[in-house]
Design goal:
With 123 residues, the protein is mainly β. Helices cover 6% and strands 50% of the residues.
């Protein structure tokens, strides 16, 4: 059973930094896409960043240059390093995984999701 668990959320002032972590367990597929998503109150969930099993990354325009997605210990840990945070980054952040490449997973939906971790940025 695939399980994802996020941690590292919290409250920070505008311009601050946070690092989100996601632990992945029970995933036995050789290929994968892993990603970070966020959902603010009253808004639809949106992709923040994705990373394919070949290491290629994709970012939402709103976070390019400020956020970095990375992984460690093969795919067991996924991170989102967030710098220069803005109040509009406030949201629940989720990590997700799928056996397809990111281009397809983004179209068809990710199969596995964590419970989310809250990020609040105050001005």
């Amino acid at each position: 059973q695939v399980q994802l668990a996020e941690s590292g959320g919290g409250s920070v002032q505008s311009g601050g930094s946070l690092r989100l972590s996601c632990a992945l367990a029970g995933y036995s597929y050789s290929t994968y896409c892993m990603g970070w998503f966020r959902q603010a109150p009253g808004k639809e969930r949106e992709v923040v960043a994705m990373i394919d099993s070949d290491g290629s990354t994709t970012y939402a325009d709103s976070v390019k240059g400020r956020f970095t997605i990375s992984q460690a210990n093969y795919r067991n840990w996924l991170y989102l390093h967030m710098n220069s945070l803005k109040p509009e980054d406030t949201a629940m952040y989720y990590c997700a995984a799928d056996i397809r490449v990111c281009r397809e997973a983004a179209k068809r939906g990710f199969s596995f999701w964590g419970q989310g971790t809250q990020v609040t940025v105050s001005s």
